[in-house]
Write a structure and sequence with these properties.
5 helices; 8 strands; globular; alpha+beta; 216 residues; 20% strand; 28% helix; six-stranded antiparallel beta sheet
């Protein structure tokens, strides 16, 4: 009986460890390869490359978890899924915001947006969901089609003198894309972020990606 008890205890411990590992994997939002593979650094004059700092999951994942956002990386395993694009915007001096558009190329895209103001859970005051028309997302599709944004690599240099971070994730039949930039004020990532944000109808105040209006 004592031997059986030891075996049962070992089985319970192993099951608990496995459950913890599986739970951790379920909550992993991004591709684990990002913190192992080498990626270029966008700092002016920089020629080094390397993996993303392991803390990037805490920086980028915190707002997404508070908003109960899904992992687009795991969703990318569904090869027949429609395109989803998500902006996570993390300003220097205000709270983050998230804008997600599902079925970007479909007949009825869906917008989900969240203003992270330190709350524990999303509420009607800070979370927006609504259907969009194809005309609504025409500018978003135009940027995707006319720029190289979907071929941009992740940036191993996560921050600099200006701490504003833009993260664009895209998933769909062509797989998963993770594109992060910091301190930008032009280019396809900046333009796409602003086009997505305009679809919310929210004022471009301290949380708006167009920082030109709120820098001073």
């Amino acid at each position: 009986m004592r031997g059986m008890g030891i075996v049962l205890a070992a089985v319970c411990i192993a099951a608990a460890l496995l459950a913890g590992i599986l739970a951790s994997q379920r909550r992993a939002l991004f591709d684990p390869a990002l913190s192992h593979d080498s990626h270029p650094c966008s700092w002016p004059g920089a020629n080094q490359s390397g993996p993303l700092d392991p803390e990037f999951d805490n920086w980028f994942g915190g707002p997404l978890r508070r908003a109960d956002e899904p992992s687009l990386f795991r969703k990318s395993n569904a090869k027949t899924s429609p395109m989803t694009i998500r902006l996570t915007f993390i300003p220097s001096w205000s709270e983050p915001l998230i804008v997600r558009i599902d079925d970007v190329h479909g007949s009825q895209p869906r917008l989900t947006a969240f203003r992270d103001e330190g709350q524990v859970r999303p509420t009607a005051a800070n979370k927006l969901t609504r259907d969009l028309s194809r005309e609504d997302v025409a500018s978003v599709r135009a940027i995707l089609a006319s720029t190289n944004i979907l071929s941009l690599q992740p940036d191993s240099c996560l921050s600099g003198p200006d701490g504003v971070i833009y993260l664009i994730e895209v998933t769909g039949p062509d797989g998963y894309r993770f594109i992060n930039r910091w301190g930008i004020s032009e280019g396809p990532v900046y333009d796409l972020a602003n086009q997505m944000y305009r679809l919310t109808g929210w004022a471009n105040g301290s949380q708006g990606p167009d920082r030109q209006a709120v820098m001073f």
